[in-house]
Amino acid sequence: MEPKAYHRIFGIVLDSVGTGAAPDANLFNDQGADTLGHVGEAYQGELKIPNLQRMGISNLREHEILGVPKVNRPLGYYGTMQEVSAGKDSMDGHWEMMGLPVTKPLDTFPHGFPDDLIKKIESFSGRKVIGNRPESGTKIIAELGEQQIETGDLIVYTSGDSVLQIAAHEEVISVKELYRICEYVRSLVNGPTYTIGRVIARPYVGPDKAHFVRTANRHDFTLAPIGQTDLDYLNEAGIQTIGIGKINDIFSGHGISIGYHNESNMDGMDHVDEVMKKEFTGFCFTNLVDFDAMYGHRRNPIGFGKALMDFDKRLGTVLKSLRENDLLMITADHGNDPGFRGTDHTRERVPLLAYSPSMKMNGNLGNRQTFADFGATVLDNFNLKNHAIGTSFLEELVRTGEVK
């Protein structure tokens, strides 16, 4: 099947890099959240992200990011997207991007998980559950990690999202055993009694609470997509789909031709560089989770900004490596404002940046009314029917006219 415009599309999701409170932020108690804005303020104007800047990262905002002025002639097209899904988790955001918005709220557990579920986990694993409350992962591991090492218990916790997380020291409970336990728990929470978006294995290492570190062996056991996604349609049409980072986990492997696990953002960008050298026609979908896991949830705006600047340097390499018939689209799946209250995701609009060396113009894509516009554009490019609510903006990207 001959693509309309681009032979290869690279979609990069900067996990949690929101760009200001969404219109419905009040429904989530997130009024005033602004991930990019507050990171810029924390850097007092010294946030240096020149490649994102020239792509229009500040142009899409009413107020530019401190230290990152708007540019007169962005490299390509810029805009924002807002979510229609009922939640603000990574699963909701990615599913909606791929044409499958989550319209019914998944179960959350603000007071911890019910006794019947905990007892089943204990019976299957032969281990006691400790914790069982909403909490920051680093905080609860610091508090209970030494006890977990001594007893072999399972640290179970949640957040404001539909997640059940299980933490264990790798030298006490092997990663293989922890995954086996999480797979069992996944089987318990697929509905109808409990429907949870993600069961997350959270291995950690270190001799004591002052040195505990969560490892890259994290694994998300996600609710299988409840319908077909744009990845399925691409895959069924013979279009290669490549998932980098937790993409494979989020979609439970559905619609993914090849998957790469990330150790970090930089490892993820290594995989992007590797894939860019390959000869293929299709869609490469990448998630970079460090912004969220390492800095957003930990409310660390300085670390968040450093990760943005590190990504921006790697983005420079990607921009130079793009071929004439490649398209790069950069976005996010939700916010996680490190300058905001609490430790949960924040309901925000997300950036939408698009560039191809073949573009002859630049412009504003506006505020897209659903993340599904992202996937609709990918389908449109490969001459596939859009089955969801999204609207393609491909035509705007392939306009001809005066060279910018």
UniProtKB/TrEMBL annotation:
Residues 8-385 form the Metalloenzyme domain. Its EC number is 5.4.2.7. Binds 2 manganese ions. It is found in: Cytoplasm. Its main location: cytoplasm. It is an enzyme of class 5 (isomerase). Mn(2+) 2 binds at D292, H297, H345. Keywords: Cytoplasm, Isomerase, Manganese, Metal-binding. CDD domains: PPM. Its cofactor is Mn(2+). InterPro entries: Alkaline_phosphatase_core_sf, DeoB, Metalloenzyme, Phosphopentomutase_DeoB_cap_sf. The keyword Manganese applies. One of its GO terms (molecular function) is phosphopentomutase activity. Pathway: Carbohydrate degradation; 2-deoxy-D-ribose 1-phosphate degradation; D-glyceraldehyde 3-phosphate and acetaldehyde from 2-deoxy-alpha-D-ribose 1-phosphate: step 1/2. It catalyses: alpha-D-ribose 1-phosphate = D-ribose 5-phosphate; 2-deoxy-alpha-D-ribose 1-phosphate = 2-deoxy-D-ribose 5-phosphate. Mn(2+) 1 binds at D15, D333, H334. Signal peptide: none annotated. Isomerase that catalyzes the conversion of deoxy-ribose 1-phosphate (dRib-1-P) and ribose 1-phosphate (Rib-1-P) to deoxy-ribose 5-phosphate (dRib-5-P) and ribose 5-phosphate (Rib-5-P), respectively. Belongs to the phosphopentomutase family. This is Phosphopentomutase. It comes from Lentilactobacillus raoultii. The lineage of its organism: Bacteria, Bacillati, Bacillota, Bacilli, Lactobacillales.
